[in-house]
User: Which sequence fits this backbone?
């Protein structure tokens, strides 16, 4: 996955993401595609979650999935999550959960955050300080310039890292996460971070917007054979656009 | 499945937006004022084939890659479904199961596949 929170020259906030899924879940030799990735695309839908006849938030889901991986709460905040691989992963978390019933399933925490949080700060605090069953990266965007961060989560809240877009090691006007801790180098065989940063800098703050971000996320290997969709969000207008993505050869398998 | 060998040689593309209309995805309303069992009826009925196909592929993964650990976890969870699936998610998945004809246990595994996958 690749998630980006970025602001334009006027301070408008954007959030965009590629959702990549299906690694090692069956390679179709004939078509050179991942089988699960191909099966997931027709199941992608956007959901308008309403209460009292009004939109509470919007999300992008795979049909049958009732949690949240990508979402926007109009006028408040935007959200995406990227997978985090960690030795202290879901196995221990699930066993502990069966025993203690403590901690949240990731997608249910994110859904609850979308339903209940009333601001960027509230969402950030909830996502940073709630015990989880598996580690994850939460990417959050707000409404004001500089309101964007990557929350690197362990299962427990100790060790949570919040990396704001204003940090000198982030982009300054954007923050970008793939599937690696930002303080470590990505796996050399799976470096989407470097190419994505290169394209963000080439785009520049002056060209930030749906078109520019979609171009960044359509550049290989940010776009790869695991990419199922690209979502584009603008928090003030409440706009969520979702497009199926395909990566014709030559294309990196991940 | 060999990919391009680093260093990165691709370029930043331009002019990709907007993509063709056939790459847009359908939209559904989830009415949170409805009882949880009724919220996903339309989507479950419309997309039951797609959901079934995903579950089939995930089960293949569990069988081929899951070995001992994941299978034993799935068994443990299945035996404790009432306790590990909080409200309103349990009721929502019950409604989805009724609408799609897919067993609730399988839908639950699908919904926690992130945690299983990180195993």
Assistant:
């Amino acid at each position: 996955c690749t998630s980006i929170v970025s602001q334009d020259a006027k301070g408008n906030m954007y959030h965009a993401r590629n959702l990549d899924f299906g690694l090692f879940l069956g390679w179709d030799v004939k078509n050179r595609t991942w089988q699960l990735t191909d099966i997931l695309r027709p199941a992608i839908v956007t959901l308008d979650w309403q209460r009292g006849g009004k939109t509470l938030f919007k999300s992008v889901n795979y049909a049958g999935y009732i949690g949240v991986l990508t979402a926007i709460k109009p006028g408040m905040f935007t959200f995406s999550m990227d997978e985090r691989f960690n030795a202290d992963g879901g196995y221990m978390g699930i066993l502990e959960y069966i025993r203690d019933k403590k901690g949240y399933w990731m997608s249910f925490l994110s859904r609850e955050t979308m339903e209940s949080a009333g601001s960027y700060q509230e969402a950030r605090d909830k996502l940073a300080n709630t015990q989880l069953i598996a580690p994850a990266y939460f990417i959050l965007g707000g409404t004001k310039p500089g309101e964007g961060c990557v929350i690197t989560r362990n299962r427990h809240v100790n060790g949570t890292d919040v990396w704001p877009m204003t940090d000198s090691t982030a982009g300054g006007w954007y923050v970008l996460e793939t599937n690696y801790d930002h303080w470590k180098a990505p796996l050399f065989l799976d470096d989407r971070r470097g190419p994505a940063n290169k394209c963000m800098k080439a785009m520049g703050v002056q060209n930030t917007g749906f078109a520019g971000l979609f171009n960044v996320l359509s550049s290989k290997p940010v776009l790869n054979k695991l990419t199922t969709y690209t979502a584009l969000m603008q928090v003030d207008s409440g706009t969520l656009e979702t497009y199926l993505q395909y990566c014709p050869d030559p294309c990196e398998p991940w | 499945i060999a990919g391009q060998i680093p260093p990165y040689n691709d370029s930043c593309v331009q002019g990709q937006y907007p993509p063709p209309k056939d790459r847009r995805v359908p939209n559904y309303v989830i009415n949170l004022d409805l009882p949880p069992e009724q919220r996903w009826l339309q989507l479950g009925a419309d997309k039951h084939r797609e959901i079934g196909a995903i579950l089939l592929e995930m089960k293949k993964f569990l069988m081929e890659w899951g070995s001992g650990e994941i299978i034993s976890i799935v068994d443990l969870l299945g035996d404790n479904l009432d306790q590990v699936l909080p409200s309103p998610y349990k009721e929502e998945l019950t409604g989805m199961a009724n609408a799609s004809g897919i067993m609730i246990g399988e839908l639950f595994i699908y919904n926690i596949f992130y945690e299983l996958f990180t195993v």
Summary: Chain A has a mean pLDDT of 95. Helices of chain A lie at 35-40, 90-100, 106-116, 120-129, 193-203, 210-217. The first strand of chain A starts at residue 2 and ends at 7. Chain A touches chain B through 80 residues (CB under 8 Å).
